[in-house]
Design goal:
Elements: E1 3-9, H1 17-30, E2 35-41, H2 53-56, E3 60-61, E4 67-68, H3 71-79, E5 88-90, H4 91-104, H5 114-127, E6 135-140, H6 150-162, E7 168-175, E8 178-179, E9 184-185, H7 188-199, E10 206-211, H8 217-227, E11 234-238, H9 246-252, H10 255-262, H11 274-284, E12 289-296, H12 306-318, E13 322-329, H13 339-342, E14 347-350, H14 359-372, E15 376-379, H15 381-393, E16 400-402, H16 403-409, E17 415-420, E18 423-426, E19 429-432, E20 444-452, H17 457-462, E21 466-473, E22 475-477, H18 482-488, E23 490-495, E24 502-507, E25 513-516, H19 531-546
Parallel strand pairs: 1-6, 1-7, 2-5, 2-6, 7-10, 10-11, 12-13, 12-14, 14-15, 15-25, 16-17
Antiparallel strand pairs: 3-4, 8-9, 17-22, 18-19, 20-21, 20-23, 23-24, 24-25
Helix pairs in contact: 1-3, 1-9, 4-5, 5-6, 12-19, 14-15
This protein binds glutamine.
Glutamine (GLN) binds at residues 352-354, 380-381, 404, 472-475.
């Protein structure tokens, strides 16, 4: 039976609760325990799939096709444990389950209430698979005191009471602001936050305090006294230059030891931190630098492309170079020549996206990379744009475009080289969609197999011809155009096993030009960089040597 660690936040949002949870997961693994991390989000969307990346950052997709919060990406990157549908839930999903049961008559005769019906639904979710791991880490989104978070806090309080004593602990993350004028670190907001938590029946066992600098002993003791925790359970979390130092930094501060002490696990197994020492060494001691341009739409919020930025960092670590990323707004290239913007980069990446805005600019970026022999990685929409560019400018399909854009504009302007797929195969099952489907959860989602062409660039890069990668898209490249495009030199080097869906394209005579219909960035880890990102950065490094 798993032990449970509930992670909550207070004072302000964006303190890095997800990262702290992920780093703690990694530290418990380093001590030989198995872990699973889970996120419970109080918002009312059924899942984040329908939220704008501007608002909520990227949508992270799991192998089993769930559209989840980007914190699950942190969890996977730090622990290597593949997240599942059952590792992410929102109030929207919980309420929708409860209401479905109510309509079905599961609670016949009863008045449906937040306590116990909603809280029971949350508790059932927390307990899924509890026999599979040593530790289950459950992070509650938002901050204590939020109205919508209350049912979750009540549920974890009840959950810890339902379990035998000592099987659940609570870790609370707060902020210690530094007041420059008086030169003081302030503990009052943390005291209030803990008071709020205790008023709903939760007494934290561990306090993780974010601060710009170190926390002096005096403040530590004060926090321990006023918040009723042990002084060695007040953990300082200082700002770090790289998130990948977090496991080592938290270990130095004694977080994993404090957690094991709280569970009274003694003697504590010794940690093996060599994986994280190597990661930190690679990130802090690069031997060079490459500059990569990400030409996209959601460039104001870096979280919108979180996994891509991380995967590039991992690719850099594998090649011992620092990858400097610059975000370039694709729309600029609809008015101006891309040359002056892109000539200083060693590689160009066009990421995924939805809708027509910026797409003509992305097509220009793909054309620039092809013509100037600059390494290009096109991901999902970035692959579709590379195919449209090839069709228009090399294969002579002058009006090539995507049905997605005509669908939005309500008129037919393009020859649909990329079209809306209505039926496909997943494993042994057929999946069908219609144009009128709901927007949420109706794309081609999750892991699909692909077969790579022997002797292709990608087969060399992956070192195999059988792969599986995660998808999240509605539109596909039409194989009707395969012959014309291959005659022009764009090779379809990865296909779905039934040969119907193009998964990878590459220019044969280009040093590195690859478009993938899936999202390789979702599977990259600092200690196991994704082969495509590793080789993309290698190619960029090569380009930097040539100039
Ligand atoms: N909008 C495109 C589609 O739905 C690409 C999606 C993406 O890049 N994730 O097919």
């Amino acid at each position: 039976m798993a032990r449970f660690i509930f992670i909550t936040g207070g004072v302000v949002s964006s303190l890095g609760k997800g990262l702290a949870s992920a780093a703690l997961g990694a530290l418990l693994q380093a001590r030989g325990f198995s872990v699973r991390l889970r996120k419970l989000d109080p918002y009312l969307n059924v899942d984040p799939g329908t939220m704008s990346p501007f608002e909520h950052g990227e949508v992270f997709v799991t192998d089993d096709g769930a559209e989840t919060d980007l914190d699950l990406g942190h969890y996977e990157r730090f622990t290597g444990v593949a997240a599942r549908k059952t590792d992410s839930v929102s109030s929207g999903r919980i309420y929708s389950n409860v209401l479905e049961k109510e309509r079905r008559g599961d609670y016949l005769g009863k008045t449906i209430q937040v306590i116990p019906h909603v809280t029971n639904e949350i508790k059932d979710f927390i307990a899924i698979g509890e026999d599979e791991v040593d530790f289950m880490l459950c992070e509650i989104g938002g901050t204590v005191g939020d109205i919508e978070g209350l049912p979750f806090f009540e549920a974890i309080r009840q959950f810890s009471q339902d379990k035998p004593r000592g099987q659940c602990i609570f870790m609370h993350l707060t902020l210690l602001p530094f007041i420059r004028a008086s030169g003081e670190l302030k503990t009052k907001p943390t005291q209030h936050s803990v008071k709020e938590l205790r008023s709903i029946g939760i007494a934290p066992d561990i306090l993780v305090c974010r601060s710009e600098g170190p926390i002096p002993q005096k403040e530590r003791e004060k926090l321990a006294l006023f918040c009723n925790v042990r002084p060695d359970s007040v953990i300082a979390a200082q700002d770090l230059k790289s998130i990948y130092e977090a496991p080592l930094a938290y270990h130095r501060e004694g977080l994993d030891q404090a957690v094991l002490d709280a569970f009274q696990i003694s003697p504590a197994p010794r940690p093996d931190l060599t994986r994280w020492e190597d990661v930190a060494d690679r990130i802090y001691n690069p031997e060079g630098e490459v500059k990569v341009a990400i030409v996209g739409k959601y460039t104001q919020l870096e979280d919108a492309y979180k996994s891509i930025a991380e995967a590039l960092t991992h690719g850099g670590m594998a090649n011992r170079v620092k990858v400097s990323v610059e975000w370039v707004d694709a729309e600029i290239f609809e008015r101006e020549d891309p040359g002056p913007y892109l000539e200083n980069f060693q590689a160009i990446l066009v990421p995924g996206g939805f809708g027509e805005r910026g797409t003509e600019g992305k097509i220009k970026a793909a054309q620039y990379a092809r013509e100037h022999k600059i390494p290009y990685l096109g991901i999902c929409l970035g692959m579709q744009m590379a195919v449209i560019e090839a069709a228009r400018n090399v294969a002579g399909v002058k009006s090539a475009g995507s049905e997605e854009f005509d669908h939005e504009a309500g008129k037919k302007r393009f020859e649909p080289v990329v079209y809306h797929l209505k039926e496909w195969v997943q494993g042994n099952a057929k999946v069908s969609r219609s144009a009128q489907d709901d927007k949420g959860g109706t794309m081609r989602l999750g892991a699909y197999d692909a077969v790579l062409t022997e002797g292709s660039h990608v087969a060399r890069i992956y070192g195999t011809t059988a792969i599986d990668e995660r998808h999240r898209h509605r539109y596909e490249v039409d194989i009707k155009y395969r012959e014309a495009l291959e005659a022009a030199g764009l090779c379809f080097s990865g296909m779905s096993p039934d040969g119907r869906l193009p998964e990878i394209v590459e220019w044969q005579d280009h040093p590195w030009f690859i478009g993938v219909q899936f999202h390789p960035e979702l599977k990259s880890k600092p200690f196991d960089p994704h082969p495509l990102f590793k080789d993309f950065v290698r190619a960029a490094k090569e380009t930097s040597r040539l100039v």
